Amino acid sequence: IARFDEASTGDASVVGALEKLWWPIARATYTVDPQGVDSRSEIAAELVRANLLRAGAPGSNAYRMKTKWRQFLWEMFSAQRFGVSVHEVVTRVQKGPLGTFRVINHLAWIHPSSIWQFRVDRDGFPLGIVQRFQARWWEGERREDTEKSDWFEDFIPADQLFFHVRKQEGSDLEGTAMVRGMYADAKRNQAFRNWQAVHAQRVAVGI
């Protein structure tokens, strides 16, 4: 993960390839159409528009999720860099002009480097993930007996997660990052640049 992150942020050719894919997604116009012509379908479409896209009729702002749609798209696009993008879906019960519904409060992106394990059942369907993180030492209940360097593990069930996997094969939720095919070239380019810098330094000082 660290190597893919380095290549996707430090090599101009990799960054350019990712940006070329990203901008059509970012500039697209997104909308939600009702599945039917009945009032229930219209309300459902209006609710989703208000919740995800922060659009809709006046007064529907109460249903908005805290995560911006474009931010979610960018985080989901990280599957091109890492092979998989995982969000924890946090919901809330919200009253509003359309009625009382359970809506998405926010979508919490989980960095792939913190995912310790993907768990699947015998049939290959996801059960959840094990996330490994350092101590939340600022929390009052852990402050006295927890060091900053301590590590903890949390299991998050699949029904609370949104997976976006690039080129998934079978039950493998790690996917295949687009950057994987560019990594070797990126490392070679970096090596060539280092050699050129060393050569220029030696020529400049007369060695």
Structure description:
It is built from 7 helices and 6 strands. With 207 residues, the chain is an alpha+beta fold. A 3-stranded antiparallel β-sheet has the order 2-1-6. Strands 3-4-5 form a 3-stranded antiparallel β-sheet, with no helix packed on it. A hairpin with a 2-residue loop joins strand 1 and strand 2. Helix 1 crosses helix 2. The two termini are 39 Å apart.
Task: Enumerate the spans where pLDDT stays under 50 for 5 or more consecutive residues.
Answer: none
**Helix segment count?**
7
Order of helices and strands: HHHHHEEEEHEEH
Sheet bearing the most strands, described? 3 strands, antiparallel
Number of strands: 6
The side-by-side strand order for the widest beta sheet comes to 2-1-6
Structural class: alpha+beta
What integer is the average pLDDT? 84
Quick overview:
With 207 residues, this protein is of the alpha+beta class. It is built from seven helices and six strands, in the order αααααββββαββα.
Give the helix/strand layout.
Blueprint: H1 2-10, H2 12-27, H3 39-52, H4 69-77, H5 79-82, E1 84-96, E2 99-110, E3 115-120, E4 126-134, H6 140-143, E5 151-157, E6 161-165, H7 180-205
Antiparallel strand pairs: 1-2, 1-6, 3-4, 4-5
Helix pairs in contact: 1-2
